[in-house]
Structure formats: structure tokens, C-alpha cells
Design brief:
It is a single chain. By secondary structure, the protein is of the alpha+beta class. Helix content is 39%, strand content 30%. The chain contains 18 helices and 19 strands. It has an eleven-stranded mixed beta sheet, sandwiched between helices. Strand 3 and strand 4 form a beta hairpin. The longest helix has 25 residues.
């Protein structure tokens, strides 16, 4: 049982979709010193004239973008400093000067950028191209788009004219719901009510098939008047990459009170129950018993915010978090580094030194927007694993009673099985092993359990240790903590066992330290 099944009377539905997405557009040829040299040569620009040429192109681009605001009769504003909340300012302009569709405003400021510069090589005494930092003007174009709703495009006004596009999956879905006349209510970028949630989910799933890169190509052609020159030289414009991607699963409740009555206990239990191995399992990573050596940092952070509580787990630069938002509990996965995950790709290889064949192969996932469908698959799986692993808050008296039951001996088929001493270090170690979310998802065998439980033994594969593990597994089964699936030698923690272990972990990590703190 997970929290959706547990609170089904109070839950109106579940909606999974993309949330915040940052897409970056690169003209990779202009980011390469060699290809930039080709670009200048193709257009008959000498290195000594690059500075003057670049300034001329930048001036033309700035005039073109600022003229877009004039043609559309929308505000243009230059901002001094970088501490301005541009999104809030754009929303304020939209409120004061409404528009049904199209450009809202254009804002600009000076920021540090990465660009190509011409420098003099001290050794060769010659000019050469060098990638490095400098300051230039950036433009922020805010739109109320018919496809993406409230969004913005950020463009660098100096070579190589990098682009950053911000869109939101909830805004995209909002536009689609309005098109189909499906009634809904929103609160702070979340849906508090949707008339037809199953249909909304069907629509949300179509975002990966909408070829949004074509839309971006069309929009940037109107903004960057230097793009035809780039396309004429390289026969290509921008490569679109997912710099950051958030995918959320909202558990929509019937009221705010329904969330408040248990959410604080839910996140506290999760914080004290989940370990590093659990976090790895949520992200689908292999565990220690497979021989995989993980190099990176895993952290969990619980905070109280003005809106409520938020629990965040990070594995390197990727993260999953749970927080309350209006009428919803949101589980949200953020992918900053997609290389931690795999995507199935066609790979060509040469057979018999002459024949080229194509085969499917799982490779590290890249940031190409073509992988958007895989981002959705990975994130949805992570959110689902997290929801299924969340420790359901239980009544204290009931949990204590169940812990007392497994501490007592049990007789099955005229055979007596001893109880578990909950204060014994071996029992604590055993329950910590069973609390691993990887075992919850994938199950475990006699070999896996003894390699962890008896890891300090000289030979954990000896007949004596194998027999001891078999007896321990039998004891766990008779107490209803684990079960065997079919004829396979694989065991899983039962639903009842998971509840017991969750409360035991909470008792061990929170209750006892609280008690000790109160008497000191």
C-alpha cells in the first residue's frame, strides 16, 4: 500500500507532467575555434577585423530585437544590475498592459558571457581565436504563447549568440485544457482541480510528441536576424539541449486540510527512514552487492518553508523532492546531469571488416531535446518508486503493538521461532539492511542477505553461514516480515514488514534520540 491507496477517499486524482524546463540553443560551430575560423574565412573576415565585425553584427542584432518591441507596441526596458526579478516584472507588465497572445515585453541587462575573442599569441606573435569570458548585453523576451503559455527566451547579443528558453509543462497543459474546454483551477503553478484528470493525463503525455524544437526554430528566426548568415555557412542553425528538466507527480487532494493532517509526519518519517542506498534505488542505480562502486555525494535535506514542508534528496547533481503545494502533494524529479541514466540508441558497427550493421544499445543519455521522451520515462519511474517507498504514517499505539508482537516468540506447525530483540545490535543491523529500498524493489536472495549481514565473517559463503542465513530467513518469514515469490529463491519485504521496519527505523533514528535529549 502506498499513500495514494492509503488516502484514496481524500484524493481526487494523480497527474504527472513536466514542470520547469530550461532549453539551451547552441550554434556549436561558432563555439569551436577551428570552425569559427572557417566561418570568418568563408565570410572573408580577417582576424584583425573580427572585433569591428562582431560589434557591427551585435549592433544590428540589438536594433532588430528592440524594434520587435516597437512593432508590437510592447514595453522595452534596460535593467541596471542583476538583482532584478525579471519574471515578476514581466508579470506586472502583463497585468498593467494585458495581451491575449504574443509578446509581453522585452527586458535587457549586462551579464558575463562565454564567447570567442581574438588575442595575440605571445610565442608565435600571431593573432588567434580563443574561447573565454566577457560582458555583453542579454535580451529577455517574455511571451504569452498559444502553445506554451507564459514563457521567455533569453539571447546573448555577442558571438556565438547562445539562446536559453524557459517553458513550463503545467503552462503547456493549461493551454491544452482550455482548447478542449476542460474546466480546471490553478494555484501557484499547480492544478487544484481538473474536471477530467484521466483526459488531462493523456494530454500531458503528448508533450513529448509535440516536436517543440520546430517551434523553437520558428521563434528564434524572428529574433536573431544574423541566423541566415550562420545557416548559409554551416547549413544548420541551433542545436537544442535540455539544460535542466523538472518532472512532477501531483497527488491532488479534496482540501488543504486533508494534506495538513498527515503531511508533516509523512516527510519526517521519510527523512529518518530513507538512507543513501534508498536514494540510489529511487534513481535506479545499482547497489553495493552488484559490485558497483558509486563515486559521488548523496544528501537528504528536510526544511520547513512558509508554504509547508519540503524534503529533498540529491544524488550528485540530480534530485528528487516532495513538498506540499496548494491542494497537492508534489513529488518532483530534477535532472541536471542526464548521463547518470541510459537511453536505447541505434549504434552502427562494422562486421567482417566491410559490412555495416545497426544494433540497439543502452548508452548514457545526453542532453539533446530528442531525448525528451526518455526524460519523461526516467522521471516518472523515479517518482513512482519514491511514492511506493514512502513510509505511511501509522498510529503510534498500533505500531508499538506490532513491534511487540515480533519481539515475542511465535509457534508455527509445532515449531517455536524466537522473537527479535529490538535493542540488540544484530537486530538493528538486520532491519537496517531490510530497510534498503533496493531490496524493497528488487528483492534479495540468501546470498545477498548473508553478504551484508555476515560481511564481517571470514567466509560468508561457508556452509555454516549459509545455513544460519537460511534459518534467519525462515524466522523472518514466520513473523510475516518477508515472503517468498513463486518458486524462485527471491524474497521480498511484505507490506506489513515494510510498515514495521519503517516505524522501527523512525523509533531508532528519532524517538530514542529525542528521549535521550529530554533526560540530559
Amino acid at each position: 500500500m502506498n499513500i495514494i491507496e492509503w488516502k484514496k477517499e481524500k484524493i481526487k486524482g494523480v497527474l504527472s507532467t513536466f514542470d520547469r524546463m530550461i532549453i539551451k540553443g547552441y550554434s556549436f560551430q561558432l563555439c569551436s575555434e577551428k570552425l569559427m575560423g572557417y566561418f570568418l574565412s568563408h565570410n572573408n573576415i580577417l582576424l584583425k577585423d573580427f572585433g569591428e565585425y562582431a560589434e557591427k553584427v551585435t549592433k544590428s542584432l540589438c536594433e532588430h530585437i528592440e524594434n520587435i518591441a516597437k512593432v508590437n507596441d510592447r514595453p522595452y526596458q534596460f535593467l541596471y544590475g542583476n538583482d532584478n526579478d525579471k519574471v515578476e516584472l514581466a508579470r506586472k507588465i502583463l497585468e498593467e498592459k494585458p495581451v491575449d497572445e504574443g509578446l509581453i515585453c522585452i527586458l535587457s541587462n549586462i551579464e558575463v558571457c562565454s564567447t570567442m575573442n581574438v588575442i595575440k599569441n605571445g610565442k608565435t606573435k600571431k593573432l588567434e581565436l580563443k574561447w573565454g569570458p566577457r560582458k555583453c548585453k542579454y535580451y529577455y523576451l517574455y511571451y504569452l504563447d498559444k502553445d506554451f503559455g507564459f514563457m521567455h527566451i533569453k539571447i546573448q547579443s555577442w558571438f556565438p549568440f547562445m539562446v536559453q528558453i524557459y517553458i513550463n509543462g503545467h503552462e503547456w497543459l493549461k493551454q491544452r485544457l482550455m482548447e478542449e474546454n476542460i474546466t480546471f483551477e490553478m494555484y501557484n503553478n499547480s492544478f487544484s482541480y481538473i474536471e477530467d484528470i484521466p483526459r488531462a493525463q493523456e494530454i500531458a503525455d503528448k508533450l513529448v510528441d509535440s516536436k517543440i524544437s520546430d517551434k523553437f526554430d520558428a521563434m528564434i528566426k524572428d529574433i536573431n536576424n544574423f541566423l541566415p548568415t550562420i545557416e548559409e555557412t554551416f547549413s544548420h542553425s541551433y542545436f537544442w539541449c535540455l539544460a535542466e528538466c523538472e518532472y512532477s507527480t501531483d497527488i491532488i487532494h479534496d482540501s488543504r486540510e486533508s494534506i495538513d493532517e498527515y503531511f508533516k509526519s509523512l516527510v519526517e518519517n521519510a527523512f529518518y527512514t530513507f538512507k543513501c542506498d534508498d536514494v540510489m534505488s529511487f534513481f535506479g542505480r545499482k547497489l553495493k552487492d552488484t559490485g558497483f562502486q558509486f563515486k559521488g555525494e548523496i544528501t537528504s535535506d528536510l526544511r520547513k518553508r512558509n508554504q509547508g514542508f519540503r524534503l529533498k534528496h540529491k544524488m550528485k547533481s540530480n534530485q528528487i523532492k516532495i513538498y506540499d503545494k496548494g491542494y497537492s502533494i508534489r513529488i518532483e524529479t530534477t535532472i541536471n546531469d542526464p548521463h547518470e541514466f541510459k537511453v536505447l540508441k541505434d549504434v552502427e558497427k562494422i562486421v567482417d571488416h566491410k559490412k555495416i550493421v545497426t544494433e540497439k544499445k543502452w548508452l548514457p543519455m545526453g542532453k539533446s531535446i530528442a531525448n525528451l521522451y526518455r526524460y519523461a520515462e526516467v522521471c516518472k519511474a523515479i517518482n513512482t518508486r519514491y511514492i511506493n517507498a514512502l513510509p505511511i504514517p501509522t498510529e503510534k499505539e498500533l505500531a508499538i503493538k506490532k513491534l511487540e508482537n515480533i519481539s515475542n516468540k511465535k509457534e508455527v506447525n509445532n515449531r517455536v521461532y524466537t522473537g527479535f530483540n529490538l535493542f540488540d545490535k544484530d537486530t538493528i543491523r538486520l532491519f537496517n539492511i531490510l530497510a534498503d529500498a533496493g531490496l524493497l524493489i528488487n528483492g534479495f536472495t540468501n546470498k545477498i542477505l548473508r553478504s551484508r549481514y555476515f560481511k564481517d565473517e571470514e567466509d560468508c559463503n561457508s556452509k555454516r553461514i549459509r545455513n544460519k542465513t537460511t534459518r534467519l530467513i525462515d524466522k523472518l518469514r514466520k513473523h510475516g516480515i518477508i515472503k517468498k515469490v513463486g518458486s524462485a529463491s527471491t524474497y521480498y519485504v511484505t507490506e506489513n514488514g515494510r510498515r514495521l521496519i519503517n516505524y522501527f527505523m523512525l523509533y531508532q533514528n528519532k524517538k530514542i534520540p529525542e528521549y535521550l535529549s529530554s533526560i540530559n
